[in-house]
């Protein structure tokens, strides 16, 4: 009888050990799945961030394109640009005009731009050959977190 009892106890112990082993394996698998899930969430967030940056870059490019098209139409017929420089939020336009009024007209038109703040007129010089040289400078608009 004692032998049967020991035998039953051994079988129960084996079953419990097998059950415990299965629980341990399930716990390890759950930890692995949890880690994979966390990794997938991090990767998803990184992809979202990349997509947002790409979208912002495309938006800035579209705004620059719109600004350049507007600039092209804002330049009077008797004025032309010799250089356009953009650095750290500052845009500088240098150009020539046949008459000073053309520079004033360009300045007036550019002040309506939604991309930049006040355009500051720079030098207006008459060259020996006839055209007036001009400079206009501006900074990006205050509420604008990015530059066009």
Note down, in words, how this protein is organized.
With 148 residues, this protein is α+β, with helices and mostly antiparallel strands. It folds into two domains: 18-74; 77-142, 2-Layer Sandwich (Gyrase A, domain 2), CATH 3.30.1360. It has two helices and four strands. The protein has helices at 2-74, 100-110, and strands at 79-87, 90-97, 120-126, 132-139. It has a four-stranded antiparallel sheet with strand order 1-2-4-3. A hairpin with a 5-residue loop joins β3 and β4. The chain is rod-shaped, with a radius of gyration of 36 Å. InterPro entries: Extracell_DNA_Util/SecSys_Comp, PilN. Pfam families: PilN. This is Fimbrial assembly protein. Keywords: Coiled coil. It comes from Pantoea alhagi.
Give the percentage of residues in beta strands. 15-25%
Strand tally is 4
Biggest β-sheet: strands ordered side by side in the sheet: 1-2-4-3
Low-confidence parts lasting 5 or more residues at pLDDT below 50?
Answer: none
Helix amount: 55-70%
The total number of structural domains is 2
Structural class: alpha+beta
SSE order = HEEHEE
CATH H-level superfamily of the largest domain: General secretion pathway protein M, EpsM
CATH topology of the largest domain: Gyrase A, domain 2
CATH architecture of the largest domain: 2-Layer Sandwich
Number of helices: 2
CATH class of the largest domain: Alpha Beta
Give me the Rg, rounded: 36 Å
Distance between the termini: 92 Å
Biggest beta-sheet profile: 4 strands, antiparallel
Judging from the principal axes of the Cα atoms, what is the shape? rod-shaped
What is the averaged pLDDT score?
A: 87
């Amino acid at each position: 009888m004692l032998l049967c009892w020991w035998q039953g106890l051994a079988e129960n112990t084996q079953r419990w050990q097998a059950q415990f082993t299965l629980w341990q394996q399930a716990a390890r698998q759950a930890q692995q799945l949890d880690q994979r899930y966390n990794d997938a969430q991090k990767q998803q967030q990184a992809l979202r961030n990349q997509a947002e940056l790409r979208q912002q870059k495309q938006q800035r490019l579209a705004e620059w394109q719109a600004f350049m098209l507007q600039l092209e139409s804002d330049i009077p017929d008797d004025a032309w640009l010799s250089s356009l420089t953009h650095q750290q939020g500052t845009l500088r336009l240098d150009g020539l005009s046949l008459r000073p009024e053309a520079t004033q007209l360009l300045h007036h038109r550019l002040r309506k731009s939604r991309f930049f703040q006040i355009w500051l007129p720079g030098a207006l010089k008459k060259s020996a050959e006839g055209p007036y040289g001009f400079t206009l400078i501006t900074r990006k608009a205050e509420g604008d977190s990015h530059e066009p």
